[in-house]
Task: structure prediction
Amino acid sequence: MKKSLTSIVTLAVVLGMVSVASAGLVNYDRKAKKAGLTPPATTVKPAAVKAPAPKVSVPAAVSSVPAWLKTPQAVQNELQQKSDMNGDGKLQTFETKMYLRDVIDSVNANGKVPADTNILKAYDANKDGMIEASELPKILEDVGK
Result:
């Protein structure tokens, strides 16, 4: 009697565990077939066609963002090569900021630095091919971003 009672209790526990384990796994197609229902056919809806976005004028403050803040710039000289910390041949934003800080230090020490890279040419306001002290405020502003 004790043996059969133990067997019944064990069987009940095992069945209970199986039902709990499969409680989250419901096959709705099988359930619908059992109930005599047919599952609805799945149809693919065509993708909605989006209307073109309206043209918005960009404020001057946004359009004046330097190119080096948008995309990495290719290394063009030895000073930039020293700033290229990961050695990928491009200056990421933080590497460009390091480079521009070195340029600022050079201008403060020497008075002028040749604008021999695309980055520096963008800051050469008077287009004389040199970065001078009068052109540093814009660089300082962008380095602070």
Q: What stands out?
A: The chain is about 50% helix and 5% strand. The first strand starts at residue 73 and ends at 74. The first helix runs from residue 2 to 21.
